[in-house]
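HUMAN: Forgive my ignorance: could you write out one protein's sequence and backbone structure tokens?

ASSISTANT:
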Amino acid sequence: MTSKLHLRLARKRRIRARIHGTAARPRMTVHRSLTKLSVQLIDDDAGKTLAAASTVELKAKRTLDGAKKVGEAIAAKAKKAGVTTVVFDRNAYKYH
């Protein structure tokens, strides 16, 4: 029997096979857990994280307001790094 974890990891592999981040257009990946939300801008060519923001560093809760704060923080860090466009990696989570 296939567990929810295995199904999620299979979705993640399918998504990652199609998308790839570069220095000009990095991959923006989102990670959600029960207690935190984190976002990273990743250059897959160099294997480096260009910018990151999370509810932990902002001392925010994982609510709609916390997500807005994380979005504003990652946008500011992306501008500072010179990033204007990204490839969105939903990381096997629903996006709607």
Remarks:
- Helices lie at 4-18, 64-81.
- The mean pLDDT is 90.
- DSSP finds two helices and four strands in the chain.
